[in-house]
Structure prediction request, 450 residues.
Amino acid sequence: MNNISYLFLSLLVIGLWAGCKREKSQSEDSPTTILSDQELLNTVEERTFRYFWDGAEPNSGMACERIHIDGVYPENDQHIITTGGSGFGILALLAGMERGYISGKQGLERMERIVGFLEKADAFHGAFPHWIDGETGRVKPFGTKDNGGDLVETAFLFQGLLAVHQYYLNGSEAEQAVASRIDALWKRVEWDWYRNGQDVLYWHWSPSYGWEMNFPVHGYNECLILYVLAAASPTHGVPAEVYHKGWAEEGQIAAPHTVEGIQLNLRYQGAQAGPLFWAHYSFLGLNPNGLKDRYADYFTEMRNYTLINRAYCLRNPKGYAGYGESCWGLTASYSPQGYAAHAPEERNDLGVISPTAAISSIVYTPEESIQVIRYLFTQGGKLWGEYGFYDAFSETAQWFPQRYLAIDQGTIPVMIENYRSRLLWDLFMSHPDVKNGLRTLGFESPYLHN
Prediction:
C-alpha cells in the first residue's frame, strides 16, 4: 500500500466504526428566497460551523469523527473524537466568534475545555493519536498497530491551536492564559523524535509496535503543513534537510506535467492529480497566496490542481449523471462502496460528488465554487441538513446518505472564511514560530516581510 495514501485507505477498513448520533433537524430544507453570494456563503458557513459547536463531543468539546443523521452505524463509540478534524473545527470556532454565531465568552469557554482535555489526554512524545475517547482522554486505536502518536493529525490540530494562540495572545487575562497553555502543548511535541533517526518524518509511533507502521511522509499530498510545523518548533525543530531530503525526496517532488491540458509542477503520490483534500488540509492556516519555495508557487499549483479536478468532471469520461459546471468535486469521502479517495482519473472516479471538494476550493476558484454552492443549495433536503451539506452523494446511484465527516465538514467554514476575510490565514501566519519555520525551509511569503 502506498504509505502516503494511509490516511484515506485505512478508513476503508474502519468503515462505520465511530460517530456521534444526532436527531434529525426540524428544518433541513434550504430557504426558497434568492440569496446574494455573501448571504449564501454566510448561510453555508454558519450551518457547517454548527457541526463543531452543537455537534461536538460533550466532555472534550472537540469534533466527533462522524455524525450520521440516518443512524446507519453501530451505537457504540459515540464519544470518539478526531484529532485532525478537531484542528479544523477549532479554526471554525474562531470564525464563528468573529461572525457572531457564538459570543466571545462562549468561544473562550469552549477553548478552555478543549485545551484542558488535551493537557490530560494520551500523547506520545507530545504527539496525539488519530482518535481519542472524548470521555476518558485515552487513545482509541485507529488500526491494530495505530495506537500511538499520529504526527500528521497532530499537525492538523496545531494548525488550529496556533491560530487560537494568536487570537488570544493580547486579550484578557483568561484569554492570555489559554494562549500560554497552548504554547506549552506546542512546545512539548517532539517533532524531531519522529524522524526515527533519518532525514524524513514518520507518520506514526506506537508504544506497543514502535515504528512498525513504517510510513515515512513523502510529498506531495496533504502533509505539507507537517514539515512547516516541524521546522517551526522552538523546542524540537527539524533542520531544512529533513524537508528537502524527506518530503521533497531530494528534489524529485518537482516533476512538471500536464493533466486535462493544465500544467502542474509537483509530483503527486500515486497519481497525476489526486483528491482535492490535498489542496485543502495544509492550507487552512498556511496561506498559499504568494507562498513559494524552490519546488512550486503554491497558489498557482493548487488553483491548477483544482481546475484539473473540475475539468475532469466536466469531461466526465465515465458518463455519470449530474456531473457538470454546477456539480463537480472529487475528494476522499463516503461512497456507496464505503469510504474512498475519489480523484480525477477513471480508476478512482466512482460517480460520487463530495460538496466539500468544490466548496473548500473557493479560495482558488471563487466563481466556479460559488456556482456549485448555489446549485447544491437549490437541491434542498436531499443534500442539505442541520450541519450543512451532507458528505457525499451520487446521482447515478441515486444515493443520498444523511451523513457527515469532521474532516470534510471542517474545511468548508474555514475556507469560506479565508475567502471572505483571510481571518484564519492571518492568525496562523502571524505566529513567529510559523514564520521561523517557513524561513528555515526557504519559503517566500508576504507574511515574512512584516
